[in-house]
Write a structure and sequence with these properties.
single chain; mainly alpha; Ferritin; 5 helices
Length: 162
């Protein structure tokens, strides 16, 4: 069961990495571009942490190719049309979906931490909850600012994950 949870966690991180990467490419403003680029990097780091835990528990590496292909395709299906710069309303929708992805991650990691008796896995899940809560908060702040002011605020990578 724990290996299945870890596979799902890896899938979520791959999806998030690709999702944020797409948006770092299509937003024009440097602030959201930096935000999405950093979020993509953090999701990749989380994926690596989970893969190491999978290997520690199973004694073998996970075949990441299939998971990567499936989740990259899922993320790219959001935009079947050619990618183009987004307007403010479309950007709000992107942030809302990003918030949902972070919420799903938080739920999975919180529930998994409660279910597992493996101390190392529990610690990893709790760290990931903390990271994903920070990502969610950053996205919520960006969305709130966009809705109130209609523009992006400044962004520093140190605000997301320390």
């Amino acid at each position: 069961m724990l290996l299945d949870i870890l596979k799902e966690a890896i899938s979520i991180e791959i999806y998030g990495k690709e999702y944020y990467s797409i948006f770092s490419d299509i937003v024009e403003d440097d602030n959201p571009k930096a935000l999405f680029r950093e979020l993509s990097k953090y999701e990749a780091k989380h994926q690596e942490l989970i893969e190491k835990e999978y290997k520690r528990i199973s004694g073998r590496s996970i075949d990441i190719k299939v998971l990567d292909e499936e989740n990259t395709e899922r993320a790219r299906r959001i935009f079947p049309e050619p990618l183009r710069p987004l307007n403010i309303e479309e950007t709000k929708d992107v942030l809302k979906l990003g918030i949902k992805v972070e919420e799903r991650s938080i739920e999975l990691y919180s529930g998994s931490a409660q279910k597992t008796e493996d101390i190392s896995a529990r610690d990893l899940f709790l760290r990931l909850v903390h990271f994903e809560e920070g990502h969610k908060e950053t996205l919520i702040e960006a969305l709130d600012h966009l809705e109130q002011v209609g523009s992006w605020y400044g962004y520093s990578p140190l605000e997301i994950e320390g």
